[in-house]
């Protein structure tokens, strides 16, 4: 899961070209030096990060994405030096794969956004390393890993219903901040592998290599080359390249379906009519039909009326017309109401 959009979209796509065609986007630092100077991030040497991760040992690997491998390490933040395992600050280090799907442009984009945006539901970027052809990013360590792992990885403890609702709310809050006038960012790659979960099950959005400045001057969208993740990207964006905040809302709806059903958005191992989760699940998003496809691992944990309300919210997010989708703030409001102690009978299937 999580491959960049490719020829499957029947559009010219690129995972290395993130320029916005519109001339109306607000100014941001353009040069590498300007971007690096505009942040308060720490600059690490490669040797420090190599020591901090115990030479990027296989047993330090936390995961792998389009950017490259992610390793666990330990640093002394104050002195910008490596620390002994189990001491000081725990970090996650991404090291750019030169042959990967994302490159230097995305590395800089990540620094440009996370170096300036601060919110409890965004992962914290601590620093970076640039030496020769080496590109690394240093993040806070988020202990429970990704939502993707908890929903789909064998051997990973599945989230309870209440934990899923908490994660969904935290992710919505992160998205609402990005869409706010303060940040004015279109995420463009909202998916469960980019939602990290901390020890207390707070969600933190990560991976901003594909993010874009939002529209200004009353414009409804910016026009871009299509980039993102197949199965999560909104249909109008795939068809035209028109990018708006409501594209992120569509992706949020896909994640809600994954949370409800425990199924990934694309599953090639299922029958042809079930391979794409949105197409399969949409007919079930009305009234009690959603109960037929709920994740069996959370049987007995939810009230039927609450599950139906989450399904109805997902359906709104997946509306064909972008203007019919809720805003991120409306998502937060709806999900906050569902965090209250649930009333009604819980459903347990035989």
UniProtKB/TrEMBL annotation:
Catalyses:
L-seryl-[protein] + ATP = O-phospho-L-seryl-[protein] + ADP + H(+); L-threonyl-[protein] + ATP = O-phospho-L-threonyl-[protein] + ADP + H(+)
**Which UniProt keyword terms apply here?**
ATP-binding, Cell membrane, Kinase, Magnesium, Membrane, Metal-binding, Nucleotide-binding, Phosphoprotein, Serine/threonine-protein kinase, Transferase, Transmembrane, Transmembrane helix
Q: What is its EC number?
A: 2.7.11.1
Query: What would you give as a GO molecular function for this chain, any one?
Result: metal ion binding
What Pfam families does UniProt report for this protein, alphabetically?
A: PK_Tyr_Ser-Thr (PF07714)
The active site consists of: 189
Q: Which CDD domains match?
A: STKc_IRAK
**Membrane topology (UniProt):** Single-pass membrane protein
Superkingdom assignment: Eukaryota
Task: Quote the record's binding site residues for Mg(2+).
Answer: 194, 207
Protein kinase domain: residues covered: 56-338
- Residues that bind ATP: 94
Q: Where in the cell is it found?
A: Cell membrane; Membrane
Recorded hits in Gene3D superfamilies, A to Z, give: Phosphorylase Kinase, domain 1, Transferase(Phosphotransferase) domain 1
- Record's GO cellular component terms: membrane
Q: Which family does it belong to?
A: Belongs to the protein kinase superfamily.
| Descriptive protein name | non-specific serine/threonine protein kinase
């Amino acid at each position: 899961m999580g491959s960049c959009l490719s020829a499957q979209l029947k559009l010219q796509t690129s995972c290395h070209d993130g320029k916005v065609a519109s001339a109306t986007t607000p100014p941001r630092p353009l040069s590498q030096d300007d971007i690096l100077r505009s942040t308060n991030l720490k600059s690490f040497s490669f040797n420090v990060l190599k020591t901090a991760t115990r030479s990027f040992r296989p047993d330090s690997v936390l995961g792998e994405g389009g950017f490259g491998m992610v390793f666990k390490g330990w640093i002394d933040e104050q002195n910008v030096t490596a620390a002994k395992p189990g001491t000081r600050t725990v970090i996650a280090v991404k090291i750019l794969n030169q042959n990967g799907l994302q490159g230097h442009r995305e590395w800089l984009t990540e620094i440009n956004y996370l170096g300036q945006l601060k919110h409890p539901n965004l992962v914290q970027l601590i620093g970076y390393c640039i030496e020769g052809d080496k590109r690394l990013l240093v993040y806070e360590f988020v202990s429970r890993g990704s939502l993707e792992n908890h929903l789909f990885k064998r051997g990973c403890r599945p989230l309870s219903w209440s934990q899923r609702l908490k994660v969904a709310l935290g992710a919505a809050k992160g998205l609402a901040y990005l869409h706010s006038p303060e940040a004015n960012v279109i995420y463009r790659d909202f998916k469960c592998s980019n939602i990290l979960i901390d020890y207390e099950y707070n969600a933190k959005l990560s991976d901003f290599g594909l993010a874009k400045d939002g529209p200004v001057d009353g414009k409804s969208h910016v026009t871009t080359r299509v980039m993102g993740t197949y199965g999560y990207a909104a249909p109008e964006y795939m068809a035209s390249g028109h990018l708006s905040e409501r594209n992120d809302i569509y992706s949020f709806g896909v994640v809600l379906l994954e949370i409800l059903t425990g199924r990934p958005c694309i599953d090639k191992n299922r029958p042809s009519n079930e391979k794409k989760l949105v197409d399969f699940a949409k007919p079930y998003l009305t009234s009690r039909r959603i109960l037929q496809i709920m994740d069996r691992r959370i049987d007995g944990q939810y009230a039927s009326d609450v599950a139906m309300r989450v399904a109805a919210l997902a359906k709104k997010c997946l509306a064909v017309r972008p203007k019919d989708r809720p805003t991120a703030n409306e998502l937060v409001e709806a999900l906050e109401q569902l965090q209250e102690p649930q009333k009604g009978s819980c459903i347990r299937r035989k």
